[in-house]
Amino acid sequence: MNRFEYHDGHLWCEDRPVRDLVARWGTPLYVYSAQTLRMHYEGFQRAFHVLKPLICFSVKCCPNLHILRYLGEWGSGFDVVSGGELFRVLRIHADPARVVFAGVGKTEQEIEAALRAGVGLLNVESAAELALVADVAARLGVRPNVGIRMIPDVDARTHAYTTTGTKQNKFGVPVEAVRELYPRYGSSRAIRLCGLHVHIGSPVNDPELYAQSIRRALNLAAELRAAGYTVDTLDVGGGYGAYYEGSEAPSAEDYARVIVPLLEQGGWRVILEPGRSIAANAGILVTRVLYVKESGRRRFVVVDASMNELIRPALYNAYHFVWPVEAGERVPRTWSAAQPFDGLQVCDVVGPVCESGDFLARQRRLPPVRPGDLLAVYTAGAYAMAMASQYNSRPRAAEVLVRGSEARLIRRRETYEDLLRAEEDLSSES
Q1: Is 4-31+280-422 CATH 3.40.50.1000?
Q2: 383: left (phi over 0), alpha (psi -120 to 50) or beta
Q3: Residue range 314-320: average pLDDT?
Q4: Taking the mean position of all CA atoms in its chain, how far away is CA 81?
Q5: H/E stretch holding 12
Q6: What residues act catalytically?
Q7: Whole-model pTM?
């Protein structure tokens, strides 16, 4: 399910050699495969077609305008969590009715922008936010569709920083509080309170955990419907897995096999929010080896990419497969750290940032590499450029999108001047 393949020992993205992309645009470089994006998006369409869901791509994982535009052309809606993300999808002329706005800390300005744009659903995460939405809607004279993000109290069994569905997390409203909010707002003239939203974390590789959260949402929805309130929309969230080691993530069909039977009855408007599962395997980060050095018993491969370009290993201790772009006869059979080749060396792949946490891979068995060699860091299509920074005053990298034999720059490499522009352009400020 990805179009990054070795041909005669050379890594290609679709119909373009990765080395040629680097020769033109340099390193570090994010490279995306349009065909892989589309395969994963259409996989969700096929798997869940019985429900006719609104599939809203999670913008936070990969917000590049050009990628969002392609997804919109293929029929995707969008899940946004900030005013900036809303601005992005409106800039590509996405249909606001196919946009869902979530997030635990929306400002009044963001809420007003969402209501003025006419987003299809605004998911609120506290009683105070719901009151503010009602006040803003009344002031603007609009009546938006609103959902409440309920806490299903399901442990996603993922990293502590990416689990979102329990009472120990900052997200959502306890079930008992939802029961109190519906009588107060269920008949409001300012808003149309009509939905429940659940999201338990990311990545979630056990479909049964989705079933648990959806069953709890359905039980609450049935209770509210019996009391005479409107509940016609179920946003069952995102967090669906992607391949980091090559085989650990369920397919869209695996998730659908569990989720679809729960939602076939009841006339629900179903919303899905996949992001990582669509974009992660559609991108790699290409980096160049600067130095190879030994210190004590450790071998360090110092590269020009860093935690600035991919913070997930430092932040979550996340695994990303790393392998040379020019692999020769050592073409990897899987993305596992265990490769069946002789002569591999145990290395830490580290970046130039002044932090001991600046690493892309630790104690990894790799072919011998030399300065100038290129390494590919896999599964970098989600939460890589999206979380990139300019720490140590390092300009952010370029992004390239490949479609067949066509390669197009979709974000230019930043310059030193870009680093200073927001600080120096203050002529109109007092």
Answers
A1: no
A2: left
A3: 95
A4: 12
A5: strand 10-13
A6: 354
A7: 0.95
